[in-house]
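Tutorial, part two.
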Amino acid sequence: MSFQAQQSFDTRGPDSAPAPVPVHRAQDLTRGGALAQIVLDGKVYALRITRAGKLILTK
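Running the prediction step on this input gives:
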């Protein structure tokens, strides 16, 4: 399966110029597996890829 960015978001940087939005492949985050941990403000979240190819993010 090839990856294609489907939409470019127009977020504004400090100088009011469009700032690029980072794009990450879920398979890269999980290193080819089905689970990755994401830390935000000291809390750990689990990102899981289901067998149906959907993403689930849980605390």
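Residues 25-59 form a domain with the Complement Module; domain 1 fold (CATH 2.10.70.10). In part three we will examine how such features are distributed along the chain.
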